[in-house]
Amino acid sequence: MQSIDPFEQFVQSYESEIVKREACLEIQQKLEHFCKKLADLQKELQRVNTPAEDDRYQQLEARVRHYRYQLNYELPKLAENLLENRQAHPQETIDWIGQIIEERRQQQAREEADTQLRRRDREELQRCRREKKRQLLATIAEQDDYYEASDLAIEIHYAKEDLKSLEALEEVVNALLNKINDCNREGKPIVIAGTPEWKLSRMYEKATKLRQQKHPPLLTLVPSGGSTRSRSTASDDCDESDEPDPYADLSGKVVIFGGQNNVKVQVEECLRQSKVNLVWCTAEDGDQWAKQTESHIAQADLVMIITGRGTPHKQTINAKRAAKNLRKPLTQCDRASGKDSLLEHIKTGLLGLQLQRKLG
């Protein structure tokens, strides 16, 4: 194996450095030329009173910003790319400098757009979180019934991460505990020591027990014919009528976000004779199921969001964005409108889609 002459290696390192510096100088001169030309254009636009918000003016400003960033921080990297391209294509008569600068500028524009989108998403999420906090505090203040106040612990439990991001969990938890004590006129004041999360977990457990006592598990009824099936008394009105099933002819995939589990059971019962594929993430489900439900939006015929107390804002934002990006029909209805209104939204949406398909 032939050894490398240390002197030649020393000389080559300096020659390589000189070539890199020459490449940097070429790119620098090109960028300075671009910046000067664009600065002249900006002055001309200002001279003819072009508004600062004009698209052309904004595009000029963006290009100048990108070129100056390359000039100040990226010359060595751009020079490496230039030398690599020249070595790989020595016979090509291409303006490699202009091409490398433009490719990097386009990449900068994409990165800026992504950053702005993420910033807007973060700002929108924070705005929704602040609105959620405001709604929770307002709802707590309105309560005058012990059981209704206690039940709010469930909603706050599912909004816990949003409140923690605002550093507002302690404020909301303490407000709820004080309200529960105000409404508890017969018993002793409730005192829970510990962190806000611990206090909330104890109130959540109590609220869950109270809700189970108020809404006991579904009973299994045995009809006179001897057959056995599980039925929800809350959904009897979907079965007892002698009229034809109004939902039997419906078909399609419906993805729903929000609402409560008891409403979900009722709607599923009413649609059991139909061919509707229902994928539902209620306000009581966790983030993991919400993400799984979002993955079904691409195949959905109809996307629904149940707004109002209890529906996590993060869930709402993600569902709206996914439906918009995939151009899926989106319907919103208020939680307070109940099961019948929800069923009518489903029926109207699916029948409308079926009609559109028939008409081509």
N-to-C span: 76 Å
Percent of residues in β-strands: 5-15%
Roughly how many Å is the radius of gyration? 32 Å
Overall outline: elongated
Report the uncertain regions. 217-236
Q: Going across the biggest sheet, name each strand in turn.
A: 4-3-5-6
Helix content: 55-70%
How would you classify the helix and strand content by structural class?
alpha/beta
Query: Average pLDDT across residues?
Result: 81
Q: Work out the count of structural domains.
A: 3
Q: Name the helix and strand elements from N-terminus to C-terminus, one letter apiece.
A: HHHHHHHHEEEHEHEHEH
Q: What's the main sheet like?
A: 4 strands, parallel
Number of helices: 12
Number of strands: 6
Keywords:
3 domains, 8% strand, 6 strands, two-stranded antiparallel ribbon, single chain, 360 residues, alpha/beta, Rossmann fold
In words, what does this structure look like?
This protein folds into 3 domains: 115 residues, no CATH class; 72 residues; 114 residues, AF0625-like (Rossmann fold). Helices cover 63% and strands 8% of the residues. The chain contains 12 helices and 6 strands. The chain has a 4-stranded parallel beta sheet with strand order 4-3-5-6, sandwiched between helices. The chain has a two-stranded antiparallel sheet with strand order 1-2. A hairpin with a 7-residue loop joins strand 1 and strand 2. Helix 9 crosses helix 12.
